[in-house]
Write a structure and sequence with these properties.
415 residues, Jelly Rolls, seven-stranded antiparallel sheet, three-stranded antiparallel sheet, globular, TPR_rpt, alpha+beta, 47% helix, 14 helices, 2 domains, 2OG-Fe(II) oxygenase, Serine Threonine Protein Phosphatase 5, Tetratricopeptide repeat
Length: 415
Amino acid sequence: MVIGLQAAQAGLQQGEELLRRGRNAEAADLARRAVVAMPGEPRAHYLLGMSLARQAAGQPDLRDEAASAFQAVLDRAPGHPGTLLHLGLLLAENGREADSLPVLDRFLAGQPAHPRARVARANALQHLGRVADSLPDYEAALAQDPKLRAARSNYLLALLKARRVEPAMAQGRMLLEGHPGDIRALALYATAASAAGAADVYEHLVRPDDWPRAATPFGAAGPERDALHEQLIADIRNHPTFTREWDENRRAIRGGAVALDLLQSPTETVLRFEAAIRAAVDGLIDSLATDPADPWRFRRPKSYDFVMWGNILDGPSHQSSHIHNLGWLSGVYYVAIPDSIAAADPDHGGWIEFGRPGYGLPEDLVAPEHYRLHLPEVGRAFFFPSHYWHGTRPYRGTGERISIAYDVHVTEWQS
């Protein structure tokens, strides 16, 4: 629909007000009309870029249109600082790190003391493997704003990748002092402790001889459990979130398939499964005495939500070593295990492994004597703190390794 210039200008002003109020989709609709009516007006393209960028976290298909809108602003106003900042952030945070760097550099040339832009540049450099280059940007950002929790966590990760163990220990302590129980800080600080030869600190943080805890929530093998597993497998395969494609920066599974969110539109069988796992978690929480000296167990959950997803691995597919940043307690239940995954396998193919660091960290930062391997068995559940590094080993042979993983997301702590 063609609209007049006066109406387009009024629509542009209305769209800017909607953007300020967080009504991004409505703002985008008005911005598109303004772009058609006033293609040479940078404000119209900027409004479109901003309204789409704010929606892109939940709607990734909008990222390219947002980037194109920002580029249209720069074509008309090359030095527009807001556009340089937000285009750089959009690219850096959505998988186009290499493209983000020249844009962020242009912005920082005019505003070198901008913490968010410094952090975005540092994160992009680290993602691209330029770890040493990323450190000065993290340091500059944290000097400007010491409360940047995510930046300090990523700085700690970069220090470990650079094998700067003592500064990493200091950053880990600082994070945990400011944010007790921070899962990522616990994992990275424990990794730094092992690398520094502080085995007592590592064992205090991880307690590798205490975890994982095992349970059989549906009892021994038999027709009833077999029927449950058969239905769970069908529910995983038929779930609306089942996919063989995902962002590997956001999930640890390598190959295979995953049902991303089993509690979205859950079946009766999935709800029955959740209830059994919840009962096991409740029992485990009740058995854990609080310990003021334990940075994970110094408090107990009062209430929590579950997140559950189904994993299907086949042979060379596996889970890379990872932690669960948003969890407190995590776990896995084994629905199907092929015969090729066996206790007698000297390579421990298909086993779950704890302790080996992930996220691009040098594996030898954690001493091999801290690694633990456990054989997966059908009907068995494992539970462990969410900061305990874990992954699976690839296995040879045919047959699928099917499991359901879960996180406890605490909503309230006991006083």
